[in-house]
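Handout, section 3.2

Students often ask what a structure token actually looks like in practice. Rather than define it abstractly, here is a full record for Parvulin-like PPIase. The first block is the sequence as you would receive it.
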Amino acid sequence: MRVTAKTISKLLTFAAAAGMATAPIAVQAQSATDNTLDLPANFSMLGDTNPNIRKATAVVNGSVITGTDVDHRVALLVAANRTELPADELQRVRTQVLRNLIDETLQIQAATAQELAITSEEIDQTYARVAAQNFGQRADAMDEYLASIGSSPGSLKRQIAGELAWQRLMSRNVAPFVNVSAEEVNELITRLEASRGTDEYRIGEIFLSSTPESAATVQANAEKIVEQLRQGGSFVAYARQFSQASTAAVGGDLGWIQLGQLKNAQLEAVAREMQPGQLVGPVSIPGGVSILYLIDKRQILMADPRDALLSLKQIQITFEPGTTQEENRGKLDRFVAGVQAMRGCGDAETAAPALGATVVTNDQIRVRSLPEQLQDIVLNLQLGQTTPPFGSAEEGVRVLMLCGRDDPKLESGPDFDTLMGQLEDERINKRAQSYLRDLRNDAYIEYN
């Protein structure tokens, strides 16, 4: 088993640190209209711009981040992605990991300075909960797993310490000063009721900012990210590593929104045509590019048919190795004819043995848990009807027979307290990002 992507630390924006070298490199500065820093039109770079020579360790206000710290955290991210990263991608991940470790160190230091330090007992308790979720109460099994992927329990515990320290700091210094009025919540409830029946989308986004001068480079980086995601990379992990939006901390998840909340006509048009599970991008928008992933789609305050609870019988045949294609075809034809002759679910158990078939019953399965290709088919079945046969000679051929369906109740919508909590969380998150920026601006950081 693997540690889930939720155990990976929050990775924020890009950091650039260049080492000095002797060979000057001529570069073109940005246009005068964007030149808010009063940069010269042309200049010679005195440092080597090759990112591969950037330093892998740092000292943050006296606290050392070692190369081993970086290696162990990178191993967690690579394991979460479940795909091997090419060398150039791995270098970008290392840069992001170092930035994340710097932020983590600042968070721990800030909590300690305000006498909010996290105890080793609290860290061990959280570590044990993570182990229970992934390894069935066996902390030693998680220790072994972390070592096997090139990480360590200490690396994960350091990450836990950072997250707990930050939560405690926000609870004392930010949350008490965030106010949401009853009028705001009631206005939101009114808007939701007015929108009843319209579509809303749960979207994941990876946003990379760019200027006109960096647009080509950012576009290329975004295309590499999309390629890795299509090969099986974790969207959540990549959003935490690379997204420069405030939602990076939650894996790019925008939550349930209406498309107008995207505030960009092009993104609205793209998202409207997407299907759940689809990845699209990079999409060029003002200020950068976005990669979108449609997690789910539903109608506001309406019952979602995919939440229906089904009772299904799976009727399956298998094929013996070494049989000819003609023999398999004959067995399949007899199976299909036999299934069509069944008189509903009561007949399945008795008729299946004569066809050489087995029957498995599941009385508690939701439509949305089925493969997407089957969801619409099953929703259109009447009791006792079956799906078309699916499968292969290697895996066997099966049908699903509908034996019962409990439709979901009409959504009443989130209650007052839930909506107030959501609004408070949004404001706390914005202030937390500002708080972290202040910590970065005041920090003394040396790269080794």
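Discussion prompt for tutorial groups: The two ends are 36 Å apart (CA to CA). How would you have guessed this from the sequence alone?
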